[in-house]
Amino acid sequence: TLPKFPGFPEILAAKLCGTNYPVSISFIVVNEFCERFSYYGMKAVLTLYFINYLHWDQNLSTAVYHAFSSLCYFTPVLGALIADSWLGKFRTIIYLSVVYVLGHIIKSVGAIPSVGNSTVHIALSMLGLVLIAFGTGGIKPCVAAFGGDQFDEEHTIERRKFFSIFYMSINAGSVLSTVITPILRGDVKCFGGDCYALAFGVPAILMVIALVVFISGSGMYKKSPPEGNVLSDVCKCIGLAIKNRWRSSEFDSKKKHWLDWAEEKYPRRLIHEIKMVLRVLVLYIPLPMFWALFDQQLTLWFVSVFDLFSSLLFQMLNALLILLFVPIFDVVVYPLIGLCRINLTPLKKMAVGMILAALAFGAATLVEVNVMVRPSIYDPNVRSLVEVNVMVRPSIYDPNVRLLVEVNVMVRPSIYDPNVRSLVEDEVVAQTVSADNFHHALTKSCTHPISHRYTKVRCSSGSQVSFINLGLLDFGASYTIILTNGSVGIVPKKMVDVVANNIHITWQIPQYILITAGEVMFSITGLEFSYSQAPANMKSVLQAGWLLTVAFGNVIVLIVAEGAGLNQWMEFLLFAGLLVAVCIIFSIMAYFYKYVDPEELDKLFQDKTVDGEDDDSLKKDKKEHMEQAGDSTYLKSGIKNTAM
């Protein structure tokens, strides 16, 4: 049973079906499911909303989309500081959830055509997105940490499994929202067009439900009160330690750690807690590289041969595999590894997860190499005036828009023939191509099957306009189309330079399996590790630090992808190699990491102002406490160097 806390009702001791899981976590899991449905449902149609409703171009829409996504992973720091220093986790979740709901409502109102002009729509949309970013980012570190707080300190196994269940709820919400929200936008019509107001309104309703469910469990929660301005004390302590270390002379007594230079003013417990947090944050430095690879499965991994169902399925494949793999790993894989007497510590799991992600990109490289095999289109022996390169990319934002045909028009002066209709206005053939209308006629987004027949393509030259039949343009093929004068106007002659691609989409499944297995071992473990290694008054802060690794992973993608200028398969291979190198560095750092049990701090520091104890005596006392506690502590080997 739970210990009696002043002000806590007896219902706190309630457990789920005779287990050691508190009833309160059911409210937290349902809250997270609804919140993730709300977030991912809104994002599923966000880019299409920018392009089709606000009439922004593709570049601006993509830039705003990624800026919003990045903001959602930087704002957790603010939410964590509010929770740990001022309001506490419970009230922070409630207040920022209200901000979250307001953001959704404003976003939905901005999608109603009758509300103001385009400037008003843009202003409301941006205000709504900013509020959503602060809402979702602010509660991210608090909800996970608050869920971990509900468990008694001896129920570490149940707490670890809770984080797995928590992660499954995230992906369940993602799967359903990815299916439902685009349907609401496309199949339901309102205000004379696609119903973006409804597509944004449903996520708002789900967020209201999430808030109501969370508040409903109020009487069952353990609510740890905030412990004052922790951030201010931490910054001042670090500042004093740096100042004293800088001013020290060779005659001053030596310190075992640079933070010990602050012990003249600050209690040893605070100094010890700061050491714990800094050790974990340093360990996080290599981790963004994993997220740099992981996030590309929704952008660069789409092989463009999908029909509508396949496009939708592959967008959901990662989340579906998560729902399958989490119980398999918890019930089968990890117990089997334990039976083999392999000590699979949390940091070892994370390292294995990084290796699996690197292997996934190795598999993606093999697929990409086979997909993109092409003879050179610059072969001087190839006579062509118009080169049509057909590339199909399914939209990652809307499963209903999945076909993009790009046509690049090139005129070769070396093969200029007066009997062949010129696509230029003057005699300087290599200088100006005036086939824009032809180009734009084939640059389109549509919902036709991939193997689509283009039977009526508008082609103009000056004042003369003709409609030509290009026939079938299939994915992966390279066509040469020569336009000649005929008795009935422009007559196209199409030649197939490269036959259509026949790589089956199922070749992508192994890389999705590998990346998802890596995510299970890396992400879920990291979430629980961040909680277990943080002192009670800094758990939200360390959760925010974990989420920051995701934000910086996106930055790495932008730097490498924009700066490298490599072919796609080479870029995949580069990312895989970088992750392997980072994994080696992380493994070395993890080898020297010392696991701690924050719950033991109360035993080690009965008085917060205690001083005079050196690190050796602290470690000795800590080891004795852990040995007495037996299996009730998360990691008994807290003070010895472990092999990760």
TrEMBL record:
TM region positions: 12-30, 37-56, 62-82, 94-116, 122-143, 164-184, 196-215, 276-294, 314-339, 351-373, 509-529, 541-560, 572-593
UniProt main location, coarse: membrane
Domain of life: Eukaryota
GO MF annotation list: oligopeptide transmembrane transporter activity; symporter activity
Keyword Hydrolase: no
Region: Disordered, residue numbers: 610-644
PANTHER family: OLIGOPEPTIDE TRANSPORTER-RELATED
Name used for this protein in its record: Solute carrier family 15 member 2
Gene: SLC15A2
